Structures are given as C-alpha cells and as structure tokens.
Amino acid sequence: MTTDATPAAATSSTMRVPTLSVQHITKRYRVRDRERGRHTVIAVDDVSFDIPPGAAIGLVGASGSGKSTLAKMITGSERPTEGRIAFGDLDIGRLRSRGLRRLHHRVQMVFQDPYGALNPLHTVRYTLSRPCQNFLGMSPARAAERAAELLETVGLTPPTLYADKLPHQLSGGQRQRVVIARALACDPELIVADEPASMLDVSLRAGVLGLLAELRQTRGLSLLYITHDLLSARIVTEDILVLEKGRVVESGPTKQVLQHPQHEYTVRLLDAIPTPSS
Known about the structure:
The protein is of the alpha/beta class. The protein has helices at residues 67-74, 97-106, 114-117, 124-136, 140-153, 172-184, 202-219, 230-236, 254-259, 264-271; strands at 2-3, 20-33, 37-51, 56-60, 82-87, 90-91, 107-110, 190-194, 222-227, 239-244, 247-253.
C-alpha cells in the first residue's frame, strides 16, 4: 500500500491481480436540512492509496468517516466529485453499463448485512449459479456444479445440504458464507468487504474473518477490508488507513499502527475497544 501519508508498501504478489489506484478522491454531496438549508457535505476528502497485487488493506474508522462511500466509488455505484480511481485499464469513475459489467466481473463486494444481501425467494444454488452463467458463460449444468464447488470452498459441506435452501433456512454465519461464495463465483481479482462480520454473533465472526484471510492466501485475491473494528483488521489486513471525517489521518502496517498509534483519533478508536471487566 502507498498513500500520501506514508510510503510503506504492502506485500506484493506475482498473481494476475491489477493494482487498484485511488488518486486524490473527494466526494461531495449537496444536501438540504431545516437548520442550514441547502449546503455541501464532504464525505471523502482528498484520499489517495494503492492496493498492490495480492495485498490486504484495511479502511478503519467510526461511522460517518467515509469508509462505505469510498467502497461505493471503488465498485462504481458512486462517482467521485474529484480525483480518479483506476483498476487495471479501467477508469472506474467514467464507466457506463458495459464498463461496469467488466468491473463487476473483476471486483466483487461482500456486504455487511447477509440478511439483506440475498434474495429471500432464491435458493442458494440459484444465487451462486447466476453469476457463473452471466459472467463466465457457463451452461446451467456446469453453473450448478460450480455452485457446489463454491459451497465447499467456503466451508458449507456437504453442498447438497445447503444448495436447495432459502436464505431464511440458514444461520447468519451460513448466510454470510453464501454471500462470500457469490462474490467468488465469477473469479474476481479484488474483493471489497464492507463490515462483513459486524452483524454476526461474536462466536461466528472469527470463522468468517478466517475464511477471508484463507481465501486471499489460496486464491491470490486482493482484499479491501472496511471496518470500525481495529481488532478484526489485525486478523485480515497487512496495512491500514485510518479515516476521520473523510480524511486519512494515519496509515501504515497494521500491527505497527495498532501497537504504536501516532494520531489521537487512532488512540481514541483503540481506547473504545471493550475490554473484559476484571
């Protein structure tokens, strides 16, 4: 990872994954309220960083710090007001429908809410088969086989036990594993995980975080991990950026930042972590 705040570099890889380059990104919204009338809100303010091939980078900050807005711009659902986001040969902020399809083949998102991320009317097999058909051109039969392979990849075995279930028939942890399997279905090069464990019970979080870390290692994926939880960032990332009010206030190797924070905001985030009472 490189940022304007630090030249530290994350672990590189010889895999095919292109570098994601975020260059001086700013996002402003025009809003209206009763007290201030129409005014501008700056959600992201001049943020720059790179994700080298195979790296795992964390975006850490409290609610409202700009993390999810950055994720939306990286995945093409929002356009930056200023700056440029490039993924390989794709200028994400300029993409239209066909270009966004190319992007979503290569960049997939794991959402925070596994309950809302899955269509309640579709079986697990259907959910995993459709991207295989749409992005990889597989036949229905081959896509069904691929769905079973994906279930095995994320630890839902035997696949026959889960393939015909609807989302409401799964536990929260199982739903999130299905969401991760769907993200893997079209063989992406970068996964953007937005608070993927925050809605799970504590007993399930470690399993989902461990799965993400394992998939990155075994499949050569790049990972952008978004969280307010600094402890979970230590499990799955090598470098982190700390965001406060849309700006990067500290960045560097994850262990170094967590053990020796330099910015008062990072210190406050660490102090807010609950500790067992004595």
